[in-house]
Amino acid sequence: MEKKVFFRGWFLPILLLSPQLIISIIFFFYPAGQAISNSLYLPDPFGLSSEFVGLENFLFLFNDSYYLSSFVTTIFFSTSVSVLSMGLGLYFALLADRIFKGAGVYKTLLIWPYAVAPAVAGVLWMFLFSSRIGVVSWYLGLLGYDWNHALNSEEAMGLVVLASTWGRISYNFLFFLAGLQAIPKSIIEAAAIDGASFWKRFRTIVFPLLSPITFFLLVVNIVYAFFETFGVIHTITSGGPEQSTTTLVYKVYSDGFVGQDLGSSAAQSVILLVVVGLLTIIQFKYIERKVHY
Amino acid sequence: MIERNKKGYFMSHLGLIIGIVFIFFPVWLTFVASTVTQEDIIQPPFPLLPGPHFFENYSYALFEGTPEGYGKNIPVIKLLINSAIMALGITIGKIIISLLSAFAIVYFRFPGRKFFFWLIFITLMLPVEVRIVPTYEIAAKLNLLNSYAGLIFPLIASATATFLFRQFFMTIPNEMVEAARMDGAKPMKFFIDILIPISRTNIAALFVILFIYGWNQYLWPLLMTTDPNMNTIVMGINQMIPGGDDFGHWPTIMATSILAMLPPVLIIITMQRFFVKGLLESEK
Known about the structure:
The structure holds two protein chains of two kinds. Chain A is built from twelve helices and two strands. Chain A is an all-alpha fold. Chain A has a single domain, classed as Orthogonal Bundle (MetI-like fold). Chain A is globular and about 75 Å long. In chain B, helix 13 packs antiparallel against helix 14. Chain B is built from 15 helices and no strands. Chain B is globular. The relative contact order of chain B is 0.15. Chain B starts with 5 loop residues before the first helix and ends with a helix. Chain B is mainly α. At the A-B interface, helix 1, helix 3, helix 4, helix 5 and helix 7 of A face helix 1, helix 4, helix 5, helix 6 and helix 9 of B.
């Protein structure tokens, strides 16, 4: 779509674009270029000089069992967070869509966790499950279960998934609710008159009509779980125990800033760049076909 | 409501209430912990109802910080001010630069327009987490560590906001700009007198989304602010929790957590209409 009526001249539009362009060049393109060029070099241990090594940093990563396992961790983590938060979001949206009195109150009470920072959500859940002072772990102890996510990898993963899902339900709830409310009531009424039960209507009419939005949410949630859950992981587990909750983004941080392994961290950034690129392309290709509500 | 099914209707309410209890559960216990003493917290069982130390704990956290011997000691009011400056800086900065660039892209024809559009578009693929080490290095070279500019500028360029305004400008009838041109209005006059006023709701919607985004930043302030006086509240909480076997001072930490979530939660609740609009539209 193009505007048919427009202003002329080239100086003013360039001037208007310049703030965004200057910031993008300094803080986006230059650093991304640096990441690509750093990924081809290996700095010496004192950081005084670096040697061109071609694709060696990448080869090293793909033979590094820690890196490969952080790939697996990331996929497991993002799939769990996406599926759980979408499932719960859809569930609450279906319930809220059936209610005609007080739906607004429920909506308000369900959406506010969106505003809680992942890092704060991390602190909240860490406090509940702390092995020394946590309420939940204390009650689990009474039941004979010894919870300690600082030592047990599965418990650590479970807790970061729980804390990330908690903050993400609101987002999925709102999108599913908007999707549900866009479905013409007449279709559902017709099916109800034909005697289709709630579950049958959901399976054969509602869910298929929601599938574009479901696919869209899946991509967005995966991107979220990849990049925006750093705060949760950093506050609850710091990537431990034994790197069992180290995601790809966490590893870029810990290798780059804690481990000072700049060549490897840059190569990891480049790999992530490719991953985000692919996800963004999928997301935008699909936008054309997306439902309007 | 399609069919009159009393039991199903009741179950819907029950299901939602259970969900809301799950969602409130951690925040309730955080609030309880912010109103009791350290002893109440470390000696089980943990209280489930608020204690009498609300005022004392919050005023101590706000004006003194954590007690001697527990983590970093910065009055939380300072952290709140830093967070507010960062969040407002990011929000206002993003809205201004993306209004300007969307205006240029939609209402002008000039050489390189498509190229610049793609240049902005492609920044969508570069979240700060991906380019973190080199971005930190350039910020350090530009002397931006421990400064508000360093907290704000690297996070300010936003393709999403530019796209939202672009989409919206596309829906404005051509007659608007025709009429303005016939009246002899210069481009900037059209922008300020017509375009900005009719973009009000979109600006408000973006304001809510961007304020939350800015307030909740964690990794970037963690790297940029080595001086505790420049910490933001969201990252400052974690600095209060010592590693190893030390206990943190939990009433202060939990009061700080409540204070950290209060501003964005209040904004979402009071501006709910704009928030929902902004959220649904910015992802289109």
